[in-house]
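Handout, section B. The chain below has 161 residues.
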Amino acid sequence: CFFMLSTRLEDLRVKLENEGLVNISYVVVNHQGPYSQRKLHLLKESVSEYITVYQQEEQQDDVWTTLNGNKDDFLIYDRCGRLVYHLGLPYSFLSFPYVEDSIKIAYCENKCGNCSYTEPDIAGVCENITKEADEKLSDIEPKPAGHHSHHHNLHRHRHHH
């Protein structure tokens, strides 16, 4: 249910902000179908003004197809707009720590190289975050395959995309 998802996402946003991880943009992409469009107002009411709800139009190309993903995926980008993590089910369930840990790593580390938009003075906030989160994610990170694929349940990007 997208209402439970949006409520949990709001809880995660507040938790991260309270830990000092600020200036993170959150976007929920609503499905194109008529049922989802009719429920748009309920979805928007279930999140704060700090989470953008994007409504796809029926005629446009599906955002998830364009991003090589599915509607339940989380795509985590760094400050320079580079994809750092692409998490699919079951890793995208907010009851698991993977989304939170992926956001923390994207926030604190330069996995895709230096970014000119790095926040000053994040060292204190990030001191222990990346070590703990990286250890958790390395347990489930897929081994490198012979080709580049966006269809892993957890896909970690190490290069500019």
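Note. The first strand starts at residue 26 and ends at 30. Compare this with the example in section A.
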